[in-house]
Amino acid sequence: MFQHALRQGLIGLFLITPALAAPTAEQRGKAFARANCARCHAIDRVSESPLKVAPPLRTLHRNYPIATLGEALAEGIYTGHADMPAFELSPDQIHDLLSYLKTLE
């Protein structure tokens, strides 16, 4: 009886462990920012941007409500200078990045 209960408990634990280990939207958004933005922008709450003219991501909400950035990200971010690449994000990437940016407000 005890072995059966133990076996069932272990099976249940193995089934839920991958779900517990899955990264959150905020974590995926931070990973996206690290891979695509951190070369120029500070992506955390305290660092200076490596490129001095690039605003830290933590300050974006001062000029742009984070909730309204989704449409701009979906249409593609294009800038007037050659240093920043154009970005077109998928809906999932937009959700993840916005989720991360909200943690920086």
TrEMBL record:
Domain (Cytochrome c) ranges: 24-105
Signal peptide span: 1-21
MF term (GO), any: electron transfer activity
Alphabetic keyword roster: Electron transport, Heme, Iron, Metal-binding, Signal, Transport
InterPro entries the UniProt entry points to: Cyt_c-like_dom (IPR009056), Cyt_c-like_dom_sf (IPR036909), Cytochrome_c550/c551-like (IPR051811)
Designated name of the protein: C-type cytochrome
Organism: Bradyrhizobium niftali
